[in-house]
Amino acid sequence: MKLILTLIGCIAAVSALPARFDGHQVLRTYPTSAEHVEKLVALGDTYDFWSTPKLNVPTDIRVDPVNNALLRQFLTKLGIKYEILIKDLQKRIYWESKSMGNSVNAAFDWTSYHSTTEIQNFLVDISAQHKDISEVITIGKSTEGRDLKLIRIGANGGTRKKAYFMDGGIHAREWISPAITTWFVNELLSNRNKYTALLNQVDFYILPVANVDGYEYTRSSSRMWRKTRSINSGSTCVGVDPNRNFDVEFGGPGTSSSPCSEIYKGEKAFSEPETKAIRDFVVSRGKTTADWKIYNAIHSYAQMILTPWGYTYDLPADYRKMRDLGDKAAAALKAVHGTQYKVGSVTEILSAGAGGSDDWAYGSGNFEYSYTIEVRDTGAYGFILPPQQIIPTAQETFQAVLTMANALI
Ligand code: ARG
Ligand code: ZN
User: Fold this and answer.
1) Any ligand 1 atom below 6 A from CB of 366
2) Cα–Cα 20 to 30 A to 404, which of 33, 112, 188, 332?
3) Of the CATH numbers 1.20.1270.10, 3.30.70.340, 3.20.20.80, 3.10.129.10, which one belongs to the domain with range 21-92?
4) Which atom of ligand 1 is nearest to the CA of 353?
5) Which catalytic residues are annotated (predicted)?
6) Residue 306 Cβ contacting ligand 1 at under 6 Å
7) Ligand 2 mean position, distance from CA 304 (Å)
C-alpha cells in the first residue's frame, strides 16, 4: 500500500514538472536562395523557429533529438548550410535556473528573473514610494484572468503630456524583456532627480509583462513557450502570437493561420484580451492625458533597433526621421558596454511579420515614432540569456530609451 501511494505521489510530482529539453538543439541555418527561404517557411508549423526565415539572414531552429537527423537530412538535401548554435538546450535552462538566487521573500532585484506577481508587486511598491510622480494602472485581464498592470511615470499627473509607451514581455520566453523594463522603472524613480526635466515633460507608460499567462507558463511548464495561452477552437494547439494579433494588414506576410504555428495570428485582430487591452488603453488615454509620441516594444534576441514596417517591404513616410533617431539611440547604447546594434526597418533587417504592436502603433496614427528593440544577444544564448546579463543589458538599452525620449523635449 505504502509503495503504491509513493508511486502515485511520484507520478503526480512528475506530471507537474516543467517540460524538459534534453538533447534539443538550436541549429543556425543559412538560406541563400528564395527556394531555401520558401522551404524553411513551410517548416514553420512543425519546428520552433527562433527567428523567421529571410534571404541571406541566419535562421535559428530548435529541434528535438527525435527529429534532429531528419531536419539535417532535409537541410543537406536542399543545400542549406547550417551549424549547431546551442548543443543541449536543457543544460542552458539548468544553468539559468542554477545561477538565479532563491528569490522567495527576497527584495526585488536584477540578478534573477522574477514572476509576474513579484514584478507587479514591485510596481505597486515603488509607485507607493513615488506617489507624486507615478501610478499603477490595471489596463485589463489576460485570458486566464491575470491583471495586466502598467506604471505611469511622470510629473504633473492629470495634465496632458507627451507620452512614451513601452510594451515588454509580449513574447513569453523573452525573459530579458520584463527584467530590463522593470530596471527602467527603478532607474527613473529611484534616481528621479537625474531625470527631472524629462519627467516634467514626458510621461512613460511601461507595461513590463504584456503576455502574463504565457510568461507564467514559461516559468511553470515550458521555458520555450512564446504565445498567449488562449484555447483555439477546433485545435489542440494553444495560443496566439500576440505580436501577429494587432491590426495592420492582419494576416499579412510572416504570419500563420495554423493554430499550431509559433506565429499564429489568431482568429481575428485583437482576439487576445492582452492585445485588446493595449489598444483600448492607448486609444482612450490618447483622448485625455496622453499625447502619444513614441511606441517602443521590447523583445529579444537580435540586437536591433527596428522601425516599421513589419508587414511590407515599403518604408514608412517618416522613415528618415525614425531611422535618424534610431541611429542616435544605437550609438548611445553602444557607448555603454560596446554592444553593437543594427538599425533599420523590420522587413529590411529582420524579416516580415504582420500584426505587430509596432506597426499598429504607427499605422493607426496614434504615435509619431514606433520602435521595436530586439535586445541581447545574437544567438550565443538566445532566449536563455544568463541573468548576469540583465543589468548590463538594462544599462545600455536604457541609454537608447533616454535618447529617444529626450528627442521629445
Ligand atoms: N521578433 C519580433 C517578432 O517576431 C519582431 C517584431 C518586429 N516587428 C514586427 N512587426 N514584426 O514579433
Ligand atoms: Zn519577440
Assistant:
1) no
2) 112
3) 3.30.70.340
4) 11
5) 374 (proton donor/acceptor)
6) yes
7) 12
Continuous segment of H or E residues that includes residue 136: strand 134-141
* Nearest ligand to the CA atom of 214: 2
Burial of 269 (0-12, 13-18, 19+ CB in 10 A): buried
Tell me the pLDDT tens digit for each residue of 353-389. 999 999 999 999 999 999 999 999 999 999 999 999 9
Residue 354 alpha carbon, nearest atom of ligand 1: 10
Query: Helix 34-42 to helix 65-78 angle, to the nearest 10 degrees?
Result: 160
What average pLDDT is seen over the chain? 94
Q: Tell me: the pLDDT tens digits for 295-312? A: 999 999 999 999 999 999
**Cell 538546450 appears where?**
89
The whole-angstrom separation of Cα 49 and Cα 234 is 24
The pLDDT, as a whole number, for residue 275 is 98
Centroid of ligand 1 to alpha carbon of 353 (angstroms): 6
Q: What distance in angstroms lies between residue 249's CA and the mean position of ligand 1's atoms?
A: 14
Domain boundaries of the chain, sorted by first residue: 21-92, 108-221+254-406
d(CA 297, CA 143): 21
12: confidence class by pLDDT, cuts 50, 70, 90: very low
Cβ atoms 50, 225 nearer than 8 A:
no
Least confident range from 3-7, 162-166, 226-230: namely 3-7
Task: Give the active site residues.
Answer: 374
162, amino acid identity: K
| Cβ 299 under 6 angstroms from ligand 1 | yes
Nearest residue (by CA) to ligand 1, atom 4, is 353
Assess: ipTM above 0.85.
yes
Least confident residue range of 81-85, 100-104, 155-159: 100-104
Q: Comparing 17 with 295, which gets the higher pLDDT?
A: 295
Nearest ligand 1 atom to alpha carbon 359: 10
Q: Are 260 and 237 in contact, with CB atoms under 8 Å apart?
A: yes
In angstroms and rounded to an integer, the radius of gyration of the C-alpha atoms of the chain is 21
The residue with greater pLDDT, 32 or 106, is: 32
Q: For a pocket test of ligand 1, which of 59, 265, 350 has the largest count of ligand atoms closer than 8 A to its C-beta?
A: 350
Give the nearest ligand 1 atom to 254 CA.
11
